[in-house]
Amino acid sequence: MSLLFISCSNAEVNNLHIDLDNPDEVSILDFADSVKVIQLETTAESAISLYTDQIYHDSLIYIADVRQKKVVCFDTSGKFIRQIGAYGRGAEEHLYFEDVCLDEYNKELIVQEPWGRMVCYNLDGSFKRKIVLPDEIRAYNDLEVINRDTIC
Q1: Highest mean pLDDT range out of 19-28, 64-73, 138-147?
Q2: Distance of CA 126 to CAs 89, 97, 138, Å?
Q3: DSSP assigned state of 40
Q4: Could you read off the pLDDT of 32-54 as tens digits, one per residue?
C-alpha cells in the first residue's frame, strides 16, 4: 500500500510540461521537494483492507478503510495510535461510510453515511454527535468543511 502526501509552501505557480510519449522523464521529485516513505504498524486493530481517504493533521495520519468500516490513526513514524469511532447500529456508531473529512474548526472527523447521516467523532476517537440531513439533500458523495458552521 502506498500513500502520497504533498505539502506546498510556495504560492508561485510553475507550469510543468509532461511528454506522454516519454513517461520515464517524469519523476515525483518534479512535483515535490522530498519524498518520505512511512511504514505503518500492522496489527489486527490497525490493518487496512481498502483505503479511500487519508488525512494528515497535526502530525497524525488518518486513514479511512471502507471495507472494514473504520478510520485508523497513525503518527508520522507509522505507529498505530487509535481507531476513530465504531462500526455498528448503536446510537454512537456508524454503519457504513462513503467519505470522511476533517473539520479543523471543531476538531472532529466527520464520517458520511450514504443514508443522509453524518457521524462526528472527536479526534481522540470518541463519539461527538450524529447529524441527520433533510430528505431533499440526502444524495451526496463528498464532504468539505467551509467554516465553523458550514459543511458542503
Answers
A1: 64-73
A2: 16, 17, 25
A3: P
A4: 788 788 999 999 999 998 888 89
